[in-house]
Amino acid sequence: MNFKGIHHVSAMTANAAKNYHFYTKVLGLRLIKKTVNQDDPSVYHLFYGDEEGNPGTELTFFEIPNLAQHREGVSSISALSLRVPTDKALDYWSDRFEKLAVKHRKTQTRAERQSLEFFDFEGQRFFLISDEQNIGVKGGVPWEKGPIPKEFAIIGLGPVQLTVRKPDSTIRLLTEVMGFRFKKDFPSTIAGQPVIHVFETGEGGSGAEIHLEERNDLPMQRLGRGGVHHVAFRVEDEDQLYDWIEKINEARFQHSGYIDRYYFKSLYFREPNGILFELATDGPGFATDEPLEHLGETLALPPFLEPKRNEIEKKLKPLDTAINHD
């Protein structure tokens, strides 16, 4: 019962239109599903990924208009990373960010990989990381109709960084319950702070890592626009998800129970420092209700919300995501 890696990460935005522009036109990701938050269908839930929306490539956003700015702090998912094929690709992205006035820093070595730190239009923190030396979970397939040359394009999610005040309880959960393995440490770039611990699961590699940072100089995070809501880990199928439910019960963690998200099946719980974890199945996938060539072009609703389509569409600000296929 090992996880197959990172399934998806979900973050917060206050502006779906600007979010769509940045992640498709600047980063070159494909919008693979335009839908709504199933727990609050008055707001958008946007899913980005590779050509087919494969697990391990999915970056999603809940839109909450007028949401306050995220405040950095502990008990948070403090950084996400996106994989690119080679070290050379980072040079391409550094030039592109310079031309498009995207805030970024110089290329550096992070956990023995070349990486490029950058921030989106709402201040969300990312690292582009090179997969040139990567061994482990394979990346996805870049969007063929995207604006980025294939040899430089983003191929999936990389390590997720958690920032906590008391790491020991999180480490016990990762290693004793969730089956992660300690891999190595690497130094923090912040003077006087402890090393950052690397844990991996499944086949390992950049698509299957958690980076755990201890910080005692920060307040609790205040989740807002530019912040990350949760991280999800890949489970093979429903049978294995039920096995995980039993295991989480045995470990005495409160959880959501089985939830059908239509595109995948899920379980949610909070780790000891309060960060929200999700376990999500690889299938059925995002081509369940739309043809692959037209993913994300119109508003998709799961069957239980379809009878309320007119009511839902009236509350949503129109978002044009149609693609010219000529």
Q: How confident is the prediction overall: mean pLDDT?
A: 97
Order of helices and strands: EHEEEEHEEEEEHEEEEHEEEH
The count of helical stretches stands at 5
Which blocks of ≥5 consecutive residues have pLDDT under 50? none
Main sheet properties = 9 strands, mixed
The counted number of beta strands is 17
GO molecular function, one term: dioxygenase activity
Protein name: Ring-cleaving dioxygenase
Domain VOC: 5-131, 156-282
Keywords: Dioxygenase, Oxidoreductase
Layout of SSEs?
Layout: E1 6-13, H1 16-26, E2 30-37, E3 40-49, E4 58-63, E5 76-84, H2 87-99, E6 108-110, E7 113-119, E8 125-130, E9 156-157, E10 160-164, H3 167-177, E11 181-186, E12 196-200, E13 209-214, E14 228-235, H4 238-250, E15 259-260, E16 264-270, E17 276-284, H5 309-315
Parallel strand pairs: 1-4, 5-8, 10-13, 14-17
Antiparallel strand pairs: 1-14, 2-3, 3-4, 5-9, 5-10, 6-7, 7-8, 11-12, 12-13, 15-16, 16-17
